[in-house]
Design brief:
By secondary structure, this protein is an alpha/beta fold. It has 13 helices and 11 strands. The chain folds into 2 domains: 171 residues, 3-Layer(aba) Sandwich (Rossmann fold); 187 residues, Up-down Bundle (Dehydroquinate synthase-like, alpha domain), CATH 1.20.1090. Bound molecules: nicotinamide-adenine-dinucleotide.
Length: 364
């Protein structure tokens, strides 16, 4: 199974398959990538039975391998510098390529490094988490964090190839499966009620990796994102809807200092919940649909903001929200829902209003 993403200056395939290492060289050659001059960067925390298979197949020519312990803490310029230095020392040029094997963190960092080295070398993403398979590997957003917040430095640069393999998910902890599921849920909420109802009926099947159901959810999720990215690659308008729940989520993560207590996907679930409640509070999302969303997030056990935050955190959360990349004034710009599948763009609110609302939820 394949999907093609077509943007203004690139068309690239996303391959969906199993045992993708077997065909890796064929895929590379087919997509005009020299399999003998590659920098393969992999997340050392990805089980060796996955990375070794690729390393074994790709051990030839001038290929070099770099394993790192990727985490939000090293999603920064130091890591990018390390990668750029290696590319430079090994005389990589624009015809050469980087391959990343890992989750969204590894993918975002490597894609960023590949996009700025000599103004861009070829990039192949092999996402190994559910989140990276359904979201971060599609659409060409690259990035790293800095002191002012998450993903504050980055580029728009589409990959040359994406290889998604459902078998990689067998070793993924349940908690990480839920994180990926958060982005699938977001895609359904902003564009397809039928898909949302499918997810509601199949939550357990997806989390337990029931092959056909999970494949369907991954494929559909990529297709929704592809359709949006093709219409608005640079996030002028429509693509902003992919940030549903994320203005809250990024502020939650930043407030807690990117700890393991609340990782990205979990913050997204809380963010979706709060954005949905706020949509209803503003007279948009009908109560019946809010209840459907709340019920679903409760099933996932991420419905309790108080578990992570108290009243003292509210100002910090709102301050981080005010620094969000989508804001072009002092006000906070939020994506809201009119109904499931009908997102609303560019709703701006004073910080104080958001603080008051958060205080009603974090009532301690
Ligand atoms: N570029 C985009 O459009 C975009 C979209 C959404 C999220 N993101 C970014 O993605 C990041 C989150 O990605 P993530 O959730 O994949 O996190 P991650 O990369 O940290 O992976 C989660 C954990 O799973 C481990 N892991 C990876 N593959 C595994 C496997 N097959 N089996 C067992 N363990 C495995 C990792 O080592 C890590 O500990 C955030 O930094 C977020 O900002 C980017």
């Amino acid at each position: 199974m394949k999907l093609f993403v077509k943007t203004k200056d690139k068309k690239y395939p996303i391959y969906f398959g199993v045992s993708s290492h077997i065909n890796i060289k064929k895929i590379l050659i087919k997509n005009d990538i020299n399999p003998k001059k590659l920098m393969v960067v992999y997340d050392k925390n990805v089980p060796k039975n996955i990375t070794n298979k690729f390393k074994h197949k790709l051990k030839e020519g001038e290929n070099i391998f770099l394993g790192l312990n990727f985490s939000e803490k090293i999603k920064n310029l130091n890591t990018v510098k390390k990668i750029l230095d290696i590319l430079g020392k090994n005389n990589f040029n624009r015809n050469d390529s980087m391959i990343c094997i890992g989750g969204g963190i590894a993918g975002d960092i490597c894609a960023f490094a590949a996009s700025i080295y000599k103004r861009g070398i070829k990039f192949v993403n092999i996402p190994t988490t559910l989140l990276s398979q359904v979201d971060s590997s599609v659409g060409g957003k690259t990035g790293i964090n800095n002191f002012s917040g998450k993903n504050m430095i980055g580029t728009f640069c589409q990959p040359n190839v994406v290889i998604t393999d459902i078998t990689f998910l067998k070793s993924l902890p349940k908690r990480e499966m839920i994180c990926g599921y958060a982005e699938i849920l977001k895609h359904a909420l902003i564009s397809d009620k039928k898909f949302f109802l499918f997810l509601k009926n199949n939550l357990k099947n997806i989390l337990n990796l029931s092959p056909n159901i999970t494949k369907k959810a991954i494929f559909k999720s990529c297709k929704i994102k592809k359709n949006i990215v093709e219409k608005d690659e640079r996030e002028i308008n429509l693509r902003k809807t992919l940030n549903y729940g994320h203005t809250f989520a990024h502020a939650f993560e930043s407030t807690l200092g990117y700890t393991n207590r609340l990782n990205h996907g979990e913050a997204v679930l809380l963010g979706i919940l709060v954005a949905s409640k706020f949509s209803n509070n503003e007279g948009f999302l009908p109560k019946s649909e809010l209840e459907l969303i709340e019920g679903h997030i409760k099933e996932l056990k991420y419905d309790n903001l108080k578990k992570y935050f108290n009243k003292k955190n509210v100002k910090t959360i709102a301050n981080f929200m005010a620094r969000d990349k989508k804001n072009y004034s002092k006000n906070i710009n939020l994506i809201l829902l009119k109904r499931v599948s009908k997102p609303l763009l560019n709703n701006t609110y004073p910080k104080i209003k958001i603080e008051k609302f958060l205080n009603t939820l974090i009532n301690k």
